[in-house]
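wait is this the right file?? whatever heres the structure
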């Protein structure tokens, strides 16, 4: 399976070709989908993207990181990494990708909404995340899909019981320590049978 839609390859190449850059496809990371790093002006900048993403998530994440590259190239700083300049660049790059026909029409409303108000991470955009999820090989259950009182595991192995909704997060009790946590409704979970 390709990492990204074929329709976008030439465009992405045109973004990267003028820069001294290394693109790394990494093993899955829990804390992030992609990353942009600059060690020094003499060394190539590094963009990394998790290799387990579906092609559309991969392309959006790569576009996010290329926007950091272009923002850094313009401003020569990583301060305000998700500021107005980055948002402008990211929105323009995403619009270019949409114009290649790389995304299915079903994703366009969520992408357009995302372009109009880009988040620091695509996984912070609940509408886009839900739209992209349908293209995952094995979509995982989300906490919001469980019922109150259901027990579940997070990807870190902690076991919880779902409680009431507080805006976008659920008040959940960790079953070993009996401590309460707020867990986002979009968190990937494994439902467990109650003992």
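ok assuming it is, sequence goes like this
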């Amino acid at each position: 399976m390709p990492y990204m839609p074929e329709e976008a390859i030439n465009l992405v190449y045109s973004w990267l070709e003028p820069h001294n850059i290394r693109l790394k496809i990494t093993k899955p990371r829990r804390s992030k989908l992609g990353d942009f790093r600059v060690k020094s002006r003499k060394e190539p900048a590094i963009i990394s993207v998790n290799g387990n993403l579906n092609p559309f998530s991969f392309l959006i994440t790569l576009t996010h990181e290329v926007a950091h590259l272009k923002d850094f190239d313009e401003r020569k700083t990583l301060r305000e990494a998700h500021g107005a300049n980055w948002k402008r660049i990211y929105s323009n790059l995403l619009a270019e990708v949409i114009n290649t026909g790389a995304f299915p029409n079903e994703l366009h409303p969520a992408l357009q909404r995302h372009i109009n108000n880009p988040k620091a991470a695509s996984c912070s955009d609940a509408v886009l995340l839900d739209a992209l999820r349908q293209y995952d090989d094995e979509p995982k259950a989300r906490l919001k899909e469980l019922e109150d009182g259901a027990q579940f595991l997070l990807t870190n192995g902690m076991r919880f019981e779902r409680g009431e909704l507080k805006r976008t997060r659920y008040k959940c009790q960790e079953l070993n320590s009996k401590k309460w946590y707020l867990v986002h409704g979009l968190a990937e979970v494994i439902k467990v049978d109650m003992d």
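The chain has a mean pLDDT of 91. so i think its the right one actually
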